[in-house]
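Lecture 7, part B: from sequences to assemblies.

Below are the input chains for today's worked example.
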Amino acid sequence: MTAVGSRRKTRASRLHAALHVPDFPVAVLQAAEPSRQPAVVACGRSPKRFVYSASAAARQRGVSDGMALTAARARYDAAGAPRPLRVFERDGRAESRARERLLDLALAATPRFEQVEPGLLALDFSGLRTPYAAAEELLAGVSRLGLRASVGVSESYFVSLCAARTRGGITHVYPGQEAGFLRPLPLDMLPLDSREAKTLDRWGVRTMGELAQLPEAELVGRFGGHLSLAWRLARGKGDLELRPCQPPERLELAEDFDWDVTDLEQLGAAMAGLLKRLCQKLHGLDRAVQRLTTRLRLVGGELCERSIDLPHPLGDARALLELARTDLAARPPGGAVESVRICVQPAARRYVQQSLFGADLPSPQRLAVTLARLAGIVGQERVGAPVVPDTYRSGVAALVAFRPKSGTARQCPGGPDLGAAGLAGARGARKRHAAGVVRRSLAFRCFRPSRPALVTLAAKRPASVEARDVRGDVTACAGPWRVSGEWWTADGWHYQEWDIEVAGRLYRACCQPASGEWFLAGEYD
Amino acid sequence: MMAADPQPMNIHELRALIQEHGFGHTLPKPGKRPYPPLPSGIVEFDERLGGGFPRGVISEVTGPCSSGRTGLLLEALAQSTQARELAVFVDATDSLDQRSAQRAGVVLDRLLWVRCGRGPGSAGSPGPRGLACADAAWRAANLVVSGGGFGLVAVDLGGLPRHGLSAWQRRPWLRLKQGLEGSSTALVVLAEVPLAGSAAGMVLKMRREGTQWQGVLGTARVRMDVVRDRTHGPEARA
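Predicted structure of the full complex, as structure tokens:
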């Protein structure tokens, strides 16, 4: 590790680190095929192919970014290089994969980081107990990817970026040493536009130290207020602001199998690895899974997709795997699986504080697993919280996803507090109320589906009923009540409802006036 | 009554709560039930039941159709959900009327409704009608009991055909009872006849003694008899 300055300075309240992979597009391709040969990444179609990115060795021989490939080759050959120039075709997918890996490494170190440009990350190390160990770990992680990188650590965001871009390995610029560190660095590190850079170059100002010696007022008068920031940065006084990446709206990981997977256990094992990695990522972001989507590509190209909405965000890979397994067991894919892709929708973690004295509530993990298993038994669409349907049509059942909210329930209404009073009160009460008789309204129970009935009428009132499990004379009845709805649509309905008593049981019978058909909508209980 | 989170206001109240809940003792106090019963919501019945449905045991509400069984169950669900507990309604015949539940005071978003009746997805499932529903209801009830954390698990087997009820009678109730023991969950099974046998801690029999017909279907006179109560010890049974 390179250290600039002394460590005896006060401990930093804020600390930044920057990770730089030089010549990122070339480095990614060279990592796949290690070689010391000077190389460039080209893109575009012949004859307009141009150099997208060049390695340091190629740049030393006159090759620069944006140069026509033929010109670059000619200049490289003219420089008398011992080895021929290697030309890679630009691989956007490989770059994207490498970028994601770098982001994962950053995420493992800190949740606050910024991707300044491909291959250059700024990380907020404030509050880390062991920033040096974190920097070394970062570098080791990049090395495992086959890339070479440098890390700069400083209190200043700008200085850490400069350190990472200009030095190799780990460079720590200690507080108070920023100006001295920046003094020899070229001006192209500063946020200057091309006009300003050109003018300063014409003046012979080529390093930050030279810029820092110029009077600020004169510079601002000549270039405007914008240069004041650059001047202060060059003196190691000012700083730029880290703009942390926003948490992603969804995270995805996929795995292609070398052979067709027909066994759910094997599929579960593959999914376990993916879920573990996803949960590690989410842990770094302080997020959890709100919705889990599994996409299976079957042999023959058929796509099988299933989603699980969780009542509480879950961050536990094992619980998520159990949910996914339960779902797969309940609805197995229709054939052998070629690849699996898991997509999660993150949400803020929710921490549930159980009460010491109040009612026990199931933990979010356990509730999610229970719901998934219930869905496996009766079907996803038949488990949830009931809602009152927006219609009076008989037998309509409406459900929503079960997501209990804490604190929405009303307070418990007053009643006999016999639970706390214990048995003595109950025994005394038993003597007072030996009968246990009350007068109540009966609740309604739906028949789903409704039961078709044969009803005979006497004096325009039901006299006898015959339906499944119901047969007999009507001993009492009340009605009719006309109910209708959705008459403005083709699916309109119109009933005449009767409450009837048959063989000591109470039913709701409905007649459709248009057809004269009867059915039992339910019973009172 | 398990009210919503009693918050102690001072150290004395906190001490009293700790004492009452028995947290200061390694062994539970003799004769002290760990959880207070769940009120049924009907004062007269609660007095008769010693506070309500006992927790950690199986209770059965039996009786013929139109005897007030469902009303009692919905009242208990209302009590549980209003006390911020989560409750489950395992509906073997898909008969829950949401409006009746809401009218009874059930907080619907704290009620988990498991519709075991044959839906569109199970139309082609083998076996006679009712058997598949009974099987699904048994599995669902076991699952929520073993999952734990619910204040009330209501299993509605009313309207289930006889062979469905017979299938329930043959189930290993003692295992379900063991799963419940010591938990804060009250399991209430609604059926025409008692099913759990000796595993049931409390069996209630409901009966309708009369109905008011005054142009409309009015209130009904409902009688509840405690057929068995093993939760209050020999003194209470006497």
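Note for the exam: Chain B touches chain A through 103 residues (CB under 8 Å). Keep this in mind when comparing with the next example.
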